Amino acid sequence: MPDWLTHVLFAWALWNILSLKFNMPFIGIFITGSLLPDIDKVEVMIPFNAEPFLSVFHTPVGALITSGVISMAILRDGQAHVFLALGIGSISHLLLDLMVKKHGRPGDAFLSVLICIVFS
Questions:
Q1: What residue intervals traverse the membrane (predicted)?
Q2: Which long-range contacts does 37-46 make (Cβ < 8 Å, 24+ apart)?
Q3: How many CB atoms are closer than 10 A to CB 2?
Q4: pLDDT (tens digit per residue) in 86-106
Q5: What is each CA distance from 102 to 44, 63, 114, 115, in whole angstroms?
Q6: For the chain, does the N or the C end have fewer beta carbons within 10 angstroms?
Q7: Residue 34 in this model has a pLDDT that exceeds 70
Q8: Which pLDDT band holds residue 74 (cuts at 50, 70, 90)?
Q9: Is the pLDDT at 20 greater than 60, yes or no?
């Protein structure tokens, strides 16, 4: 999946930029977080239509809830760092997906979100 490569490379670049300013451990978890919203792609391996149930993972709330559940299940120490790494990785995935051409010109969704933020 070429879009996964884009998400991984963007997360790696973002981690490098953030690690210059902040202490950013867990690069592997950060990159895993960038692939986390695509957990709904498991639908390809399921013999029934699971899209209504799995599409919630590709939303900001679903990505952050999944990040929280995984961070609580993985480590006792450093749960906040794991949650932050997974959460920022997931949000970077969703921001990149806003730039994909769905309806109209490429980046229309990203531009409309940016306009809402600027004028609110």
A1: 12-32, 53-74, 80-100
A2: 37/62, 37/63, 37/90, 37/93, 37/94, 37/97, 38/3, 38/4, 38/7, 38/93, 39/66, 41/1
A3: 6
A4: 888 898 888 888 777 665 565
A5: 20, 20, 17, 18
A6: C
A7: yes
A8: confident
A9: yes
Q: What share of the chain is helix, strand, coil (3-state, %, to 5)?
A: 80, 0, 20
For residues 87 and 30, the answer to whether their CB atoms sit within 8 Å is: no
Token digits of residue 35? 């692939």
pLDDT at 33: 86
Asked if residues 63 and 5 have their Cβ atoms less than 8 Å apart, the reply is no
* Total domains, the chain: 1
Closest CA to 39 of 54, 26, 59: 54
- Per the document, the length of the chain is 120
